[in-house]
Each structure stands twice: as structure tokens, then as C-alpha cells.
Specification:
By secondary structure, the chain is of the alpha+beta class. The chain is built from 3 helices and 9 strands, in the order E-E-E-H-H-E-E-E-E-E-E-H. The strands form 2 sheets. It has a 6-stranded antiparallel beta sheet. The protein has a 3-stranded antiparallel beta sheet with strand order 7-8-9, with no helix packed on it. Helix 1 runs antiparallel to helix 2. It is elongated and about 50 Å long. The termini are far apart.
Length: 128
């Protein structure tokens, strides 16, 4: 097992480390909104807390054949690469959303992982 700072590599799998940038940015941004519009600031702050919890509990693991999503040690989703048609990271300068399309469905994930390591893992996969 090796740890590269932004990823953990073991047995030909890459586990992305969490990144709290997006949730913390939203949480800090919600503070001034409390004085302008209480409900809007509260909604954004609640969403930021939700993202913090997701960041702490979810893990993306890139294997040789699939992207696996874990909550703790429990596998909750398995996305085989053979079903992927396209992927994209929205707003590359400030990455906040990861999109990928499979044969039967479309998925969006907030960038709560190291965006550079995510991009490195996605490079060999199909992209239109």
C-alpha cells in the first residue's frame, strides 16, 4: 500500500482522498447570506453540512474494471467502465461537479474528492 498524499494505492486500486474545499466554501459563503436572506443562508449552510458528512463517509475507489463507491467499508455502487460513454468535470478552474454517463443512466457527483487525482484516474476512460 502506498499513499501519494491525494490517493491511496493498494492492489491495483486507487482510493481518492476526501477534499473538504467545496463544503467549506459553501459554509463560509452561507455566513454573510444569513444577514441578507436568512432562509437562503440557512439552506446553503445545511447543504454544506450535508456535503461535509458525505465527504467524511463516501469514498471513490478506481479498480482495474470499475468505479466503486463506498460508504465506510460498505460497497454501495459499482460502475463498470465498459458501460461508460462519457465523463466531464464541470468548471475545471474551480471543479465543483463530476458528471459521467453510462449506457443506461447519467450520474452527477459533487467534487468532494481531490479533483486532480480524480482527473488522473478518469483520463483513460471514454470521453466525447
Amino acid at each position: 500500500m502506498s499513499n501519494t498524499g491525494s490517493t491511496v494505492v493498494r492492489d491495483n486500486t486507487i482510493e481518492l482522498t476526501p477534499s473538504y474545499r467545496l463544503p467549506l466554501f459553501l459554509l463560509v459563503g452561507a455566513i454573510p447570506l444569513f444577514w441578507l436572506q436568512f432562509w437562503l443562508g440557512g439552506a446553503i449552510a445545511l447543504f454544506a453540512v450535508f456535503l461535509c458528512i458525505q465527504t467524511a463517509t463516501l469514498r471513490l475507489v478506481f479498480t482495474e474494471t470499475a468505479l466503486d463507491v463506498y460508504r465506510g467499508r460498505t460497497l454501495i455502487r459499482h460502475f463498470p467502465y465498459e458501460d461508460w460513454q462519457n465523463w466531464r468535470i464541470f468548471w475545471p478552474g474551480v471543479p465543483i461537479l463530476f458528471y459521467f454517463k453510462e449506457v443506461k443512466s447519467i450520474h452527477f457527483l459533487p467534487i468532494i474528492f481531490d479533483p486532480e487525482a480524480l482527473k488522473d484516474c478518469l483520463q483513460p476512460l471514454p470521453r466525447i
